[in-house]
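ok posting inputs for the zinc ion job
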Amino acid sequence: VLLVGLILLFSGAARASESLQVIATLPILKDLVQVVGKRHVTAISLITGFESEHTYTPKPSDIRAIQDADLLVEIGLGLEVWVAPLIKNADRADLPIITTSKGVPLLMDDGGEADEHDHGLGNPHIWLDPENVKIMAAWIEAGLSAADPGHQDDYRQNAAAYTSKLEKLEKELRARVASLQKKGFIAHHPAWPYFARRFGFIIKGKILRQVGSEPSAKQIAKLIKKIRAEKIRVIVSEPQLNQKIPALLAEESGAKLVSLSPLPGALPGTESYLDLIRYNVEALIAALGGEG
Ligand SMILES: [Zn+2]
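and the output
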């Protein structure tokens, strides 16, 4: 009985380790890995949707997860400043890394002087445009196929099926935004240039130049004046950041406050990337006054 038990135990362990262990830096990447890899992968994300991608403080469990991983998936562009020290501490210089921003057409922030948000490389929030996510999914497909060539047909089919879903959602949402009278909003931080361009929204201003910075009283006063003068109806806040200044701006200017999330999982009904994009577009449409 003991022998049978041991055999079962070991065969169970062997089966579990047959799936690729993939570490994603962000929950959006975890979702893409699961969509493309399905039952052949086990994916975890280092940060949750409630943390900021810019300011994460790694935990000891992150080092252990990286020690056991087969692959790591990142955005790149200097966004995950916290990931290189983790790989070093885990002693995993050999860990294959899939950088999903390669080949994505980039937008620069308009910060001018010493822009710490785009690192001079390009705004990192590429995933908020489904067209960019097609490129990102293709990198993930290639990375999974290289690590596990036996299932490359599955990875290719899963990525192709997902691309169709992205296109369908994008087309539907773009048509709905096109019928809006007013499309302008004030952003909490510069997370939205790819999103706004793809769906047809207009970013009229931003509260923070970078996560961790604070606007001066003078900058806040200027923003309130602008919101009133240009009759900007909506201020977007992000659940990962301090709500105080967006709330103050809304109160002082009479603009509506709406919460949109750059990451899945922070707001109800945004667990997957497709749901997140739908949620963000629909919430913004509603805040701007609705369609028609
Ligand atoms: Zn950002």
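notes: DSSP finds ten helices and eight strands in the chain. Residues 54, 117, 125, 189-191, 211 surround zinc ion (CB under 6 Å).
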